[in-house]
Amino acid sequence: MANKTLFKSLIGKLVPATDAVNEERAPAYALSPKHQLAQYAATGCLNTTFYATADEQLAKVLELCADLDAEFIAKTAVFCRERGFMKDMPALLCAVLSIKDREVLARVFPRVIDNPKMLRNFVQIMRSGAVGRKSLGSAPKRLVRERLFGKDRRRAQKHQQSESGAFHGRGFSHD
Question: Is residue 81 part of a domain?
Fold first, then answer.
């Protein structure tokens, strides 16, 4: 057999040169920030893996989100929830959106936070301070309330409280 390093075929000449190294110091291709976030969202579980700890993965995802637009983050959250069936990552991306763009969050919230477990994950991530705030804030709190009670039930509850003389909407009656 001929020496492959001396007698390369045309196929080897068409492969682009690598521009990065991976964790094993092997040649690799650098990914764009959008591609990196999509890869983390579709495959990341925010737990310790062979190459990275959970904290390192979280820091990397937050770093990537800081540089990307809210629309792409929202699309990524919807995709990894609906197609990838991920739980923690879409909730984290929604928490990032609560800081970046509340209008975009309001559009994707019902599609991403689609069951009580996801709602719990979202609230837990928000209250942990991982995305930069420890409280829900008014817009995320409204979304959580709507998810729990529905818009119509909320209006009915508000109306009932105002009629019964409830104490500032907290459900305390004077009876």
Answer: yes
